Amino acid sequence: MLDVVVAVVTTALTNGALYALATIGLSLVWGSMGMLNMAHGGLLALGGYAAYTGSVQLGLPLPLAIVFAMLAGAAMGALLHLLVVRQLLRSSGAGFETAVMIATVGISIALQNALLLLYGGQPLGQPFDVPGSIPVGAGAVPWLNVTIVLVSVGVMAAASLLIARTKMGRAIRATAQNRDAALLMGVPVQRVYLQVLALSGALAGICGVLVSSITQLTPTLGADPMLKAFIMCVVAGLGNLPGAIAAAFGLALVEAAMQFAAGARWGFPTLLLLVIAILIWRPAGLFGRARIQRL
Amino acid sequence: MPDPTGAAVALALKDVRAGYGGPDVLKGVSLEVPRGCIVTVVGPNGHGKSTLLRTVSGLTRLRGGRILALGAEIQDHAAHRRAAAGIAHVPQGDLLFPDMTVLENLRMGAYLERDAAQEKRRLDEVFALLPRLAERRTQVAASLSGGERRMVGIGRGLMAGGQVLMLDEPSLGLAPLVIEQIYEVIARLREQGRTILLVEENPARVAELSDVMHLFDDGEIVWSGAPDDLMNREELLATYLGG
């Protein structure tokens, strides 16, 4: 019995950490610029492959290969802003939310096919690995899972400190809460958007490395985490970062428990059922609130 | 146009036109705000007074004309660069950062200020002028009363240390007692020699404060002059403001 509990908790914490990491990148972009980035999964895959290139092809040490993956994600996020988002903001006005969603679906497809062309369709092994495990009672917790959780939590803590404490973070929050007011304060809103997309890209980059370390490298490796990230965002209330992280760990636990209790194929339907129930009960999400503006 | 102080012009609009896709809302507006003066634009609601301020701060796109801040043309600058040029706009509806505390909102006002000591000095000034904000400094903006929100908006505008403070209907939606408090604050700002472009609906409320008044109707300035002259012209007030 104990070994089952250990296994379920290990899976839940690992997946929860990965979902949370995928979610905050997505939620940050949505919360600050009203942009649903459908290419977020593509950025995850890009990060995974960038670490492979850094480590296997360029011979970088693993920590540097991870930094390389984050830089690749950040660069792609910045490019996304310069080439697509900035133009759409200028041209599509009130239709921006729809336009950017469609545009990023296209970018996601292009990104996946570029990876397919560069690396081939055969799944590759992610060089990032931590061998060994810690025996816990009758079961064992692999060091890789422990590392994934610790790295994810560390990265999320760093990201929240950046947003809570730095001047750049204040500008991001101000822009998210009231774009016009931020402009009146002299905040260069376009530069803030660039920073947000680069930051989100870097988060996606490292998330992709971690995800592929427990699965493998394929051009579509980001699809499942991104789908889960959408679910977490919706459950928590779009744009709510702490809520999204809590939802990620909570739902990962439900998913893992269900998979062990009823079989792997019941995990995802259970998640969806829960989402439907939560949205009926609280349409703005678990921690979301309908905005009340006092005059 | 009368210029009571003879000082340099802090803000000048020359034949400014603007709109929102349809016909022009501003149909060629020219006015000057001399340094150290309070210039007031009064007129009925829905005739473009807010658009006037939004066009100066860059939130509404200019269609024609020129805007000069301390003599430098700023009409082609993006909104965030106009703040750097010294335009501090306290917009209608306050537009606070709802999830930030009072202190964070005020500090956002000084976003462009790189000198921390200068920011601290301005914060002390704002708290001296609006002591209620010091009491509420850790409270989230969304939880404030209407009057307190207005004070945060004004305080945030002052934190920028700009050349011109533009106040858009500071009395809007407030109880009479609170309106009095807000106008006491504006009177204090006048004593400090601030340069203010003020927009109001009710001329009686601002006549005492103003150096120059402009009567604004349907996107145009229809009369300009000293406050006393306007208040003595009953036919003007009756025509444009319904008495």
From TrEMBL, chain A:
Query: Which one GO biological process term can you cite for this protein?
Result: amino acid transport
Pfam families recorded for this chain?
A: BPD_transp_2 (PF02653)
One GO molecular-function entry: transmembrane transporter activity
- Residue stretches in coiled coil: none
- Keyword Chaperone assigned to the entry: answer is no
Q: Does the keyword Transmembrane apply?
A: yes
Question: Which segments cross the bilayer?
Answer: 6-28, 35-52, 64-84, 96-120, 140-164, 192-217, 229-254, 266-284
Listed A to Z, the keywords are: Amino-acid transport, Cell membrane, Membrane, Transmembrane, Transmembrane helix, Transport
Q: Name one GO cellular component term.
A: plasma membrane
Q: Cross-referenced InterPro entries, in alphabetical order? A: ABC_transp_permease, BCAA_transport_permease
Q: Where in the cell is it found?
A: Cell membrane
Q: How does it sit in the membrane?
A: Multi-pass membrane protein
Superkingdom in the source lineage: Bacteria
UniProt similarity note = Belongs to the binding-protein-dependent transport system permease family. LivHM subfamily.
What is the official name of this protein in its record?
Amino acid/amide ABC transporter membrane protein 1, HAAT family
Q: Which source organism does the UniProt entry give?
A: Albimonas pacifica
TrEMBL record, chain B:
Tell me yes or no: is DNA-binding among this UniProt entry's keywords: no
Q: Could you say which protein family the record assigns here? A: Belongs to the ABC transporter superfamily.
Name all ABC transporter domain ranges: 11-243
What PANTHER family has UniProt attached to this entry?
Answer: HIGH-AFFINITY BRANCHED-CHAIN AMINO ACID TRANSPORT ATP-BINDING PROTEIN LIVF
List the keywords (alphabetical).
Amino-acid transport, ATP-binding, Nucleotide-binding, Transport
| GO biological process terms, semicolon-separated | L-amino acid transport
Question: Matching Gene3D superfamilies, A to Z?
Answer: P-loop containing nucleotide triphosphate hydrolases
Gene Ontology terms, MF aspect: ATP binding; ATP hydrolysis activity; branched-chain amino acid transmembrane transporter activity
Which Pfam families does the UniProt entry name for this protein?
Answer: ABC_tran
PROSITE patterns, per the entry:
ABC_TRANSPORTER_1 (PS00211), ABC_TRANSPORTER_2 (PS50893)
| Name listed for the protein in its UniProt record | Amino acid/amide ABC transporter ATP-binding protein 2, HAAT family
